[in-house]
Amino acid sequence: MEHFIDKIKIEALWKEEYKDYNQCLEDWVQLSHLRLCNYMEKGNYEKILKKGEYLVSNKTNRTKDSNFYPAVKLKQLFSLSRFQMHCILLALLYELNPNLEKLFAACGRCSLLPNCYAAAVSFFNAEDFTYEEIYSQFTEEFCQTFFTVEEYKIDTLWDTPLILNREIKCFLLSFPSTDFDIPSYCHLYPRETLSDDMICKETSLALEKIYRKTSGHTVINIYGKKNSGRLFHLRHTMKNFGKDILLFYTLQVLNLKEHQKTSLFQLYRTAKLENAVPCICELEKVLESKPKQGTIFCSQLFSFLTQHFPVIFVITEKKLAQTENFSCNLAVVHYQIPHPNMEEQLFYWKHFTKENPLLTEEDYYRLVNQFDFSGGDIKAAIKKAHLLSATHTQPSSPFSLFIKGCKSNCTALKELGTNRVTSAYGWDDIILTDLQKTALLHACNYIKLNHIVYEKWNFKEKIPYGKNLSILLEGPPGTGKTMAAQVLANDLGLEMYQIDISQTVSKYIGETEKKLNEIFNEAENCNAILFIDEMDAFFGKRTEIKDSHDKYANMETSFLLQKIESFKGILILATNYLNNIDEAFMRRIKFIISFPLPDSKNRLKIWKNMFPSSAPCSNDIDFSFLAENFELSGGNIKNVVLKAAFLAAAEKKEIRMEHILIGLKDEMSKLGKVLLASDFREYAYLLENLIYHQKKKN
Fold it and tell me: Is the CB of residue 324 less than 8 Å from the CB of residue 229?
């Protein structure tokens, strides 16, 4: 039977010298059959051999690259031994010809499938091997990577079935990678799908330089805001090195529980076969949601990956700071993705709308001034605007749709202890003094003219920090502070969220700062206005430390002072008690606008402005008398008018002077002021008559 075997050809398969890959596989199959049949009765040999339709050459076609032989490439990629490679090809033989069950059963292990024992007896001419030799090569990593193994057990190693992993089988048969499904916790980003017109060259060059300089066992941490282009720039960088990116979602894997180890082998296998670099994401969510379990898993993950890959990437929003807990021999290089400047943002807006240009040059500048977005945020906002355009029944201007698309980025703020404030008021709805209106308009210009001052006039070089807009509105209750904040938000076209003190302030040490930090960061990310009413509850004066409560209260105030200074968005604060605010806070505010009680002139405007044009009002209402004789805030006047309107509606009459006097009397009593009949002067009789008729009716 020796003429049937060409050992030189078999040896050449591993040395990459054999030119006919398909013929070599066929020879290997014949050799494997012969060695397996030596363990059968001699009379059955020819019969079994004839039944084995093992022409692998008809099914293992070469790829377009004539120098690429899948089996040889697999051996190189994973540094496989000859015995390990033999196990893989034996499993492939069964996949191509399942009629060989009797051949495997003849090995004496009562198995109709290829197993470890069959691989051993077919690889060695006789039982010329030791168990230790097999165990050292047939490891758990080898089994889990190349075969479908439910559980690796050393005591049943011989009977471990060699059922080839579908991904490995597709690779050996040169089938496209679309023929197998990558699990949901992995996502392959091929380099062929990328275009170069959106890349930031400085960022790409910086990442390329870092990658070239890194040595073995290194983690490159790319961090930055959500949608800042972390993965986008990484893919472009690795494209220059001819590599894909395999994204690994750690939070999904952590929730798998019993399949966590399997996921690591999946990541290892796919990255090697696809010539991809592993990239870890969701690390922050893992460590935050499950600190203890997450740290253990991340330690296993980094330890495993650094054994097989010289460099791995980790994408986070914040700088990775816990690497010392994962591996003691792990070198970490950090790189922060820079936020695009106004010129770059302008380019993104024009680039993503070039196929359907609906905006004017002025519209583009207004969007850039109002929304400090990354490229990813701009793309998402445009997509949302196009969706709104398709679903809107009423005609809307393109610019208004893009504004709504930008505002849709603020969904996460609703879950962080804030309440969305509907900005329904405009400049015509609020009564302001000339000084107040001028100050508010100046504040708006800080946003509207941002591109001229910081970009065109290049003030960004002289003042790189403190570009935020912070406004403090102070004055008695009901003087229009909240309304003014809504007017500002409406004029700027931005969403406004009010921080809910009940959901933010915590009795537990450090929790208040943590919640506020999340709110400020998210508001900065989605470019929303933050509104803090009664801010003296947050920013009270720091006091002399007498006990632990004073210490931690002072720490909270200090934290907020630092946060306001570093905050890059728009912050509007309101207080009724300016004297209770810490003095260090004042220098961090760009505009402090006072809202005192209105004088008689402005009270007259408020009284008249409070009634809608459709409200049925009697001609006997003396607005001048009301404005001159009763010192009320705008909020108090609103209460009086509403009370009068409901009284008139109950009587099914128009709103008259006596209804307003009743509302006025009740409102003044709420303020602790008792009005006498003489206070109403010539209108006292109206009040007396109304009260008399009400008593008579009851």
Answer: no
Buried b (16+ CB within 10 A) or exposed e, 287-306: beeeeeebeebbeebbebbb
Higher pLDDT, 394 or 583: 583
For helices 21-37 and 116-123, angle between their N-to-C axes, nearest 10 degrees: 100
DSSP conformation class of 173: T
Q: Which residues, including other chains, have CB under 8 Å from residue 71's CB and lie 6 or more apart?
A: 13, 21, 25, 85, 88, 89, 172
Q: How confident is the model at residue 321 (pLDDT cuts 50, 70, 90)?
A: confident
Cβ distance 451 to 369 under 8 Å? yes
Residues written for the chain: 698
| pTM strictly above 0.90 | no
**Upper half-sphere CA count for residue 420 (Cβ side, 13 Å):** 16
Give dist(CA 623, CA 607) in Å, integer: 7
Strands lying side by side in the sheet with 276-281: 186-189, 244-249, 276-281, 311-316, 218-223, 331-336
Q: What is the dihedral of CA 640, 644, 646, 652, to 10 degrees?
A: -170
Q: What 8-state DSSP symbol labels residue 528?
A: P
Pairwise CA distance, residues 648 & 618, whole Å: 11
Please, what are the domains in the chain?
2-177 (no CATH), 186-336 (3.40.50.300), 342-415 (1.10.8), 427-594 (3.40.50.300), 600-697 (1.10.8.60)
Only one residue has tokens 């570009």, namely 467
Torsion sign across C-alpha atoms 278, 282, 283, 289: negative
Residue 602 contacts residue 431 (beta carbons within 8 Å): yes
Query: Under DSSP, is residue 686 helix (H, G, I), strand (E, B) or coil?
Result: helix
10 or 255, higher pLDDT: 255
Helices marked H in 309-353: 342-352
The mean pLDDT of the chain is 78
List, for residues 149-197, the tens digit of each pLDDT value: 766 766 667 777 788 888 888 888 777 665 456 788 888 888 766 666 6
Strand order in the sheet with 469-474: 418-421, 496-499, 529-532, 570-575, 469-474, 591-594
Give 388's contacts (C-beta < 8 A, 6+ positions apart).
Answer: 396, 401, 404, 405
Q: Using CA atoms, how far apart are residues 246 and 268, in angstroms rounded to an integer?
A: 10
